[in-house]
Design a protein that fits this description.
The protein is mainly beta and 118 residues long. The protein has no helices and eleven strands. The strands form two sheets. Strands 2, 4, 5, 6, 9, 10 and 11 form a seven-stranded mixed sheet that branches. A hairpin with a 5-residue loop joins strand 5 and strand 6. The mean pLDDT is 95.
């Protein structure tokens, strides 16, 4: 089993920055890729960004150029640096992990709230 714990959410103004963290514990040797998803009120959960064990990253078009995903393997932690935040970025952000690039995300954190005021 793998446990994921997110932190770093909060209330900010449009244009501000936040950095989310996701600390992994448990059977982390089985983990390959990690990612971030978000879910806004009344909307479906959407993928935000992903990073492989080798550090290759991908982003949703809506956050490309503003968000940066990174990982510190020594700390078993993945980060999501969010710059130039917009009100439409308001959502609960979830960290997820999977065993391989073609595997579904099977481990999820509890989520952290990000609220961006205009």
């Amino acid at each position: 089993q793998v446990q994921l714990v997110e932190s770093g959410g909060g209330l900010v103004q449009a244009g501000d920055s936040l950095r989310l963290s996701c600390a992994a514990s448990g059977s982390i040797v089985s983990i390959s890729g990690m990612g971030w998803y978000r879910q806004a009120p009344g909307k479906q959960r959407e993928w935000v960004a992903a990073i492989t064990s080798g550090g290759r990253s991908n982003y949703a078009d809506s956050v490309k150029g503003r968000f940066t995903i990174s990982r510190d393997n020594a700390k078993n932690t993945v980060y999501l640096q969010m710059n130039s935040l917009k009100p439409e970025d308001t959502a609960v952000y979830y960290c997820a992990a999977r065993r391989g690039p073609l595997q579904p995300y099977e481990y999820w954190g509890q989520g952290t709230q990000v609220t961006v005021s205009s």
